[in-house]
Specification:
Length: about 400
């Protein structure tokens, strides 16, 4: 059976070049990067080369990159680390205040909610139908006790890209630290920490054809941040623990490849995504694309197929060989409709009837042909089973 993978926002395969770069670090190059002998020196050199590659992908200095266990940890380190450092210096006695958006990934959303339970105040900014935050809303939300603004660069469900540069300017003018979760944008669109005006930026290996369980947090020089964990002096005291050398090497290689291929891949994948999207709109009655189409990552489309239960469609398509998703993989199985789709104004039943297709490096024109030959029929079949669906009358 042909198998087509359109779920690259959930995870990507490890690029063969990445795997090749990693393999020696599981065997002959096994040294602890903190050891002073030659075994350690070699792995230390590999870790530092990876740091340079990751820094180059996002326009940072290598010393500003801290390796973590992935996007989730990077987001948590940014949010809790910043809040803890701010609490240390706050003399106002007021509850610290954070600004986030209502469409953040759960790694940010739940971290902010945990901070709320510990006494912080968080403003969750709304988004418009396109999925965008109005920078003026961010400006209006600023208070004297605001310690952090966190706004994701690209959304995982819609691909929507936020006006990070404008929000970065507001953060600078108001002297507030600014974090952005760039897990879904790095490697897909240009990311430059100085142009964006961020102080902290999260990335993850497994979204850019690197391994799972490794990521990085960019921390602008001079940013005050408490670690999440306590231990040795690794990563400039910001993230203790013996380095995951093979993972870090893999992330470094993935960053290098993403940087080299970014513009050609973005154009190629966008053309595939656009053909898929157009085909679905033409071939499936009442199908609608969610979020702004002009301001998205090149690989993502989110489509509502009214009268369908999204999970049922995912399973039916999987049986035909096509993998896609109803939204954030980590919340699949939850009964709740996507918080992102309801935030852009979808009714719960339409949010539940929506699928995300996220394309990637190995997809081809034939994959899109296969999807377009498969999806309309499966949607039609499921609709026929639906008690609420009425087939449109065909004009004779
Ligand atoms: N942030 C965003 C926007 C994501 O899409 C994801 C993963 O889906 C994460 C954070 C979490 O990254 P990781 O899986 O590396 O922990």
């Amino acid at each position: 059976m042909r198998r087509v993978y359109f779920d690259h926002n959930a995870t990507t395969s490890v690029d063969p070049e990445v795997l090749r770069a990693m393999l020696p670090y599981f065997s002959e190059e096994f040294g602890n990067a903190s050891s002073i002998h030659s075994f350690g020196q070699q792995t230390r050199a590999a870790v530092e080369r990876a740091r340079e590659s990751v820094a180059a992908l996002i326009g940072a200095r290598p010393a500003e990159i801290v390796f973590t266990s992935g996007g989730t940890e990077s987001d948590n380190l940014a949010i809790f680390g910043l809040a803890a450092a701010a609490a240390g210096k706050a003399a106002t006695g007021k509850r610290p205040h954070l600004i986030a958006t209502s469409i953040e990934h759960h790694a940010v959303l739940n971290a902010c909610q945990a901070l709320e339970r510990r006494g912080a105040d968080v403003t969750f900014l709304p988004v418009d139908r396109e999925g965008r935050v109005d920078p003026d809303d961010a400006r209006r939300a600023v208070r004297p006790e605001t310690v952090l603004i966190t706004v994701m660069h690209a959304n995982n469900e819609l691909g929507t890209i936020q006006l990070i540069e404008e929000i970065g300017r507001i953060a600078r003018e108001t002297d507030i630290y600014f974090h952005s979760d760039a897990v879904q944008s790095a490697g897909k669109v240009p990311v430059d920490v100085n142009r964006l005006g961020v102080d902290l930026l999260s990335i993850s290996g497994h979204k850019i054809y690197g391994p799972k369980g490794v990521g990085a947090l960019y921390i602008r020089k001079g940013t005050r941040l408490e670690p999440l964990l306590y231990g040795g002096h690794h990563e400039r005291d910001r993230r203790p623990g013996t380095e995951n050398v093979a993972g870090i090497v893999g992330l470094g290689k993935a960053a290098e490849l993403a940087r080299a291929r970014l513009s050609s891949e973005a154009a190629r994948v966008a053309a595939l995504r656009d053909r898929l999207e157009q085909g679905l709109l033409e071939q499936v009655a009442q199908a609608r694309v969610n979020g702004g189409r002009a301001t998205r990552t090149p690989n993502t489309t989110n489509v509502t197929f009214p009268f369908i239960e999204g999970e049922a469609l995912v399973i039916a398509l999987d049986l035909k060989g096509l993998a896609c998703s109803t939204g954030a993989a980590c919340s699949s199985g939850a009964i709740e409709p996507s918080h992102v789709l309801t935030a852009i104004g979808l009714l719960p039943e339409d949010a539940r009837a929506s699928l995300r297709f996220s394309l990637g490096r190995e997809n081809t024109d034939q994959d899109v042909d296969f999807a377009l030959a498969t999806i309309p029929g499966v949607v039609e079949h499921l609709r026929e089973l639906s008690p609420v669906y009425k087939k449109p009358a065909v004009a004779s």
